[in-house]
Design brief:
75% of the residues lie in helices and 5% in strands. The protein has 24 helices and 5 strands. The chain has a 5-stranded mixed beta sheet, with helices on one face. Strand 2 and strand 3 form a beta hairpin. Helix 11 packs antiparallel against helix 12 and helix 13 runs parallel beside helix 15. The C terminus is likely disordered.
Amino acid sequence: MKKGIYLLVFCCIWACSKPKNSNQAIANPKVDSIQALIKIAKKAQELSDEDRNGYLRDAKTIASTIENDTTRLEQFSEISLAYYKLKDSSNFRESNKQIIKSAKESNIPKISGYAYWDLANFLQSYGVIDSAYFNFQKALSHFEQMPADSTSSSLRARMYYSMGRVQDSYQDYLGAEINVTTAIKIFDDLDDNLRLHNSYNLMGVLAKGLGNSQKSLEAYQIAQEYLNKFEAKNKSKLVWQNRNNIASVYFNEENYSQAKILFKEIVNNKDSSNKSTYEKALGSLAYSILKLDNNIDEAEALLSEAYSVNQERGNSQDLARIHQFYAEVLAAKGDTAQAIEVAKESKAIAMETFNNERTLETLKLLTNLDTAHAAAYANEYYELDKLISEEERTKRDKFARIRLETDQVIEANQVLTEEKEVWASAVSGLIIFGLTLTVIVALYINNNRLRSRQQQQAANQEIYNLFLSQQGKFEEGRQLEQKRISEELHDGVLGEMLGIRLILGGLNGRIDEASINQRAELIEKLRVVEEEIRTISHELNNSSYEKFHNFIVSLEDLIDDIEQSSGISCSFSYDKKVPWDNLEGEIKINAYRVIQEALKNCVKHAQSEHVSITFLGMGNDLKLTITDDGVGFDVNRGRKGIGLRNIISRTKKLKGKLDIDSVKGSGTSISILIPAQFVKPNISEPQEPINA
């Protein structure tokens, strides 16, 4: 009864509010009924969740009776979006999945694009960022199938912008810059000033993340210019946000005089509807005054007001920043003990809110304030910074894989579509041909069927026997080739690729758009190739570790080869009590490489006449010593060669201790103490599943 009253009242209001000559109402009254039900479900405050779902179910029932595919799916899309806005995740996911399936079957890319867009927003709201990025890209691919007009162009640009925002949250700044630049080009052609403002604002954030303050400032200033070209309800809020962004650039550059002017303007013209910007401006102004004027009292008063605003907002994310600034105020007052306690509170809040950037800042502050525990804070800073860098690299790699896999899927779908058309034509022709031919050759086919089968079986048996005979040779050659490719990739190609990438990194000083796009594309491609080569090398080397037999013989062969090719006299002695061939493969291959690298250095740089290599067992350790009578070098020099760095790296892999003793003119001695580990029983372990 209650439901019927709501529907009757709303329909009356709906009918009275529409124009009398509404062709749409006459042409499709079902759409009007669906829209009325959706609005009741969304806006009627007195309804329970069960009643809202009831109205949306009624809307779905009516929508299912619409014969036109496009109109029906548009209404289902509106119902699905209503579930999303009502935070009914179960019904949203179910309806969204059905819309995507039906839109693909009906070949309506606009509807499927909107469905993927809704799903991306849904996943982003729940923090599933990588899946959100994937679905934004899927939406883009469907919008690209629409006819080229202003609507499809705007939709594509909005997807590029959305992908850029996702990448910014994962600090994939280069990838985000490429996508946002593409969006800007399209929005510029459409004269969409609001979205141009948003895009340049995001470009400012990305430039800041890349450490280019000048470019960040230019982007925010361009965003301000577009802000003046349109009118919107929230324009005042956008204006002060833009001012705050510009002031923050000066603040981060420690240009506190310019930052103070802008932050004071924001504080004096505070907008009550934008308390977040006002709170940040208060904190930044307090810090600028502290650093610029050393006015402790004024800075403390501003921070106190910022704290009050924060408590009113209930935003713990920004609370760590206020505590950090207040700790510096206390330190300036000379109250170091209290400053340390407040800084610790800032660190605790930052960690609770997963604010890694603020955690690093407070650790840096504590290192300066709490000298008694400075080493511990510095070590914690280093470990967190390293962890953040590794996570960011992993996330960037994930985005690269998503882009690659999506492109491969699109290409594969195109190929399948073309093959489907070819096969359809071929099958039609074959059916006609087969019906005609069947009458003529039926008897001939029956007589020869058995003979054909016998010949096929004989051919299959011959192929199988040939395969078996070649398999053994192939396996032997494959193992040898794996080892050779591994060495070539790791010692040759990978080093060159790294050098090329570092050279390209030197182009960062150029800020023109063409250089940005070219640099980002090249660096990204080289990084992906480098990672793939590293992975291949690692996998191939694992194989070579397992097959590294006759260890001492291999070392003797290596030393003999160097001796014969270089003319250097080499001596090699080892402890015959040690079961060398039972050593772990990791020890054998790295010890082999260390000796190889040391001998190369003797040939290339040391000008040695004699080299002595000893490999002895010492309790639970192995001691490898390489001594030459060459020209020697200064072990305290700051920059080490690639060969020496490789020896250091391999020693770390073995968890060994390296000692290098060298004096110019008196030769060099390299001594490595390695924890001995021998082969254990070969027990296969279950492999971890690879995350998609």
